[in-house]
User: Fold this.
Amino acid sequence: MNIVVFVKQVPDVPNIRIDEQRMTIIREGVESIINPLDCVALQASLELREREGGCITVISMGPPQSEEALREALAAGADQAILLTDSAFAGADTLATSHVLAMAVSKLQPFPDLLLCGMQTIDSDTGHVGPQIAEELDLPQVCGVNEIHMDGHLLVLKRLSEGFLDTIRVPLPALLTVSKDLCPVKNLSLGAVEAAFSQKDIIRWAAHDLGLQPDEVGLKGSATHVRKLRPPADRTGGRIVTGSPQFIVDALIHKLESMSILDEEDGNE
Amino acid sequence: MHLEPSMKQAVIRRTVRKFAETRLAPVAVEMDRTGLFPWDIAQEMADLNYFGLEIPAQYGGAGLETISYAIVIEEISRVNAAMGLCVAVHNGVSASPVYVFGTEKQRERFLVPLATGKKIGTFCLTEPNAGSDASSLETSAIRDGDNYILNGNKVFVTNGGISGINLVFAGIQTGEKGKKFSVCIVESEREGLEKGPTEELMGMRGNPVCPIVLHDCRIPLENLLGEEGEGLKIALTTLNGGRIGIAAQALGIAQGSLDVSLKYAKERNQFGKSISEFGAIQDFLADMATRIEAARLLIYRASDLKDKGINHVRESAMAKVYASEVAVDATRMGVQIHGGYGYTKAYPIERFYRDAKVCEIYEGTSEIQRMVIAKSLLNE
Ligand SMILES: Cc1cc2nc3c(=O)[nH]c(=O)nc-3n(C[C@H](O)[C@H](O)[C@H](O)COP(=O)(O)OP(=O)(O)OC[C@H]3O[C@@H](n4cnc5c(N)ncnc54)[C@H](O)[C@@H]3O)c2cc1C
Ligand SMILES: Cc1cc2nc3c(=O)[nH]c(=O)nc-3n(C[C@H](O)[C@H](O)[C@H](O)COP(=O)(O)OP(=O)(O)OC[C@H]3O[C@@H](n4cnc5c(N)ncnc54)[C@H](O)[C@@H]3O)c2cc1C
Assistant:
């Protein structure tokens, strides 16, 4: 089974800072990591390869320094890595990102059996990219998968949706996005890290290698524009009321009333 | 001049930090308290190449260069210095000389089990009457047909309690009074090798440091590392590299102290504000960070020279003496920032303080490092 895993390099979360003037994430001096769910997808692919054989290709679109994420993926056990990098790709929204990733997959010979994405990233967090790649390539897609089995030629998947556990059968080729519960990610061996840097090559494709025109990609190929960008507000810790049950209930009702959340007339209906 | 870590070195640091924080930090207190070595975790480390850091892949190692090696030791020591010591000594002064000075046969027999973590290694130089003055060692080896017969007492053997392969420095008797300082590879199961009780150390208590006694211990001639009489050369070359490991270990302890002290300073309030707002606390933090950075650069400098095959005797000694003094000072400041709580076992800074001190002592005391540095200056 030939598998493609999409990996995105993201800033390490606790450090996210935003340049509010230029509306970009400040990446200088911030450590970058592989989006954690992409590591889960990669681990799942390693386990599938172990059982089914085949080859794992990791693909990332990003600036040249995304090479680091791809080398880390090679250290984890991927067979080959493709970096989609071109100044024309800069400023891509999720649609333009998905388009480039889909075009890269179309170029692979043979066409892969399984495409894996993280369910969402820890920086932009849209969860759009996987589904958009599937749409563009006209593949069946299942999002938020937390269990994968093979049953003959079908994939048997489980996922948690709105309190239900879905079991889904899907023919290949297909695209899945994975949740963190799929499998634990193993530690890297230091020898594998060394080998990933000293013995492996990264394949690099630019827009023209994919037959893409400049206006299809990056900012120009984007359907959306950012109006405002801000980091998530700090969570203000709650207040814990202690005392007798009667006291707690009274204090709570008083608080809700003072916030106009509980209206007395509604309450009497 | 590149002063930024390479992509690979960044990945190495991140990889080791994650492993150290998830696997080694949680057992640090227990190791310090009981002195028990966590074999299950050591097995995991073996599978991830932590026991063959600089050894080429063909012998089962990771094949890292020295800066990456220093990063690994730093990151382990940042959360668990006793394990950092185990890894630094095993790699730096046990596996490494077997690789550098061993024959192809010896590499197969001894290096592969060391590099793959099947056997833990030691470096047995110090004796009751031979500390800083290693040349006065009394352990003897007498040739008897196809064997050497070893007799002597080794003390303060790091990893002693858990070792499988020991590098024993001994004088091979030649004639009446003559001695050829040499290195013998002695497997722990050889008859006549006995391990004494674990030392009751002030710090690094998670490492089973113990004496090793050799009493008519026979080893075959092919267990001699290098030639007869090459012991001093092997010891000096090995310690030059080893000192980088100890410096990196000291750096890790210092960095760990800064990290926990920063966190504590932000959390602790007195006089209605965070103690991190007091100038005195800020001075501690600034001094710690500045000196840690200086120590790190000295270590990278010595490592870089070593990788380029350039003489680095002076730079290794500088890195070792400076980093170990930074560790002692940084942990002292760290305890001070923690106040009374720093003097209790409720916080790791107390352990860091105890662990740091020995960095000024082993693999050549600070006084000996300064002698080495001064000698190289005066001979220039
Ligand atoms: C400053 C800024 C401005 C932005 N402006 C816009 C905008 O105007 N409109 C808009 O739609 N989006 C915008 N984005 C989002 C940006 O386009 C996304 O970073 C990118 O398209 C991926 O989306 P995501 O991170 O939400 O991925 P998700 O859809 O959450 O990612 C899911 C999975 O898709 C895969 N994946 C995602 N990105 C890549 C990649 N580059 N290479 C390989 N695999 C990948 C990974 O497997 C990942 O786990 C902006 C982001 C930033 C930082
Ligand atoms: C926890 C621990 C682990 C160790 N692990 C190992 C190990 O794995 N293998 C090993 O071989 N050894 C090991 N050692 C031993 C260590 O290397 C020695 O303790 C060290 O070299 C000092 O020797 P000594 O203790 O005999 O002190 P001494 O040499 O007696 O020194 C006493 C004092 O005199 C000073 N001094 C000595 N000579 C001079 C001089 N010429 N000029 C100025 N001052 C001088 C010293 O600096 C020191 O302050 C370990 C020690 C400890 C505590």
In short: The interface with chain A takes residues 7-8, 10-12, 14-16, 18-19, 23, 44, 47-50, 52-53, 57, 61-64, 68, 72 of chain B (CB under 8 Å). Chain B has a mean pLDDT of 97.
